[in-house]
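Consider the following input, taken from an annotated entry for Redoxin family protein (Vibrio agarilyticus).
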Amino acid sequence: MAYSVKLKAGDVFPSLMATLLDSSTVVLGRPDGKATWQAVFVYRGKHCPLCTEYLNEIERFLPAFEAAGVGVIAVSADAEHQLAEHMDKLNVSFPIAYGLTEDELKTLGVYISTPRSELETDHNFAEPALFVVNDEGNLHVVDLSNNPYVRPELNALTRGLAWIRDPNNHYPIRGTLDY
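Applying the prediction step yields:
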């Protein structure tokens, strides 16, 4: 039986770069602008209608992420042309990156699937994941799914992040006990 290494809460988020459609690169987990934390949403790719729906839903919650001081980025293993085509179905203002390699997906510890056919996509792809990286570069929130039907509910997520970020709550990283 093969085992995959999963990133754990409290781990340092790996330094991975991804490319935006304007050909600039971003370091995942490093927020820009006013945000001091970053939510990195890993999505399956252009072929997934549930991803399209979820990415568009994230856009509606951007003000709540911003109010909590959390920047947003999404990334997949799609190629540049696939993201360019996907943008026709997306109505988002947050950055979306492409081009994660299978080795980089393994570094993130996401579940990886093979396409059911060439009609679906032409490469292995990540299943949905969310990594919320705090201002120290550590994983404060980790959510991994092995299918497209289970993802964080964004209203609860943004409310929770606002609560975690409130300095009066002194909320630590949870789930760090090793066994």
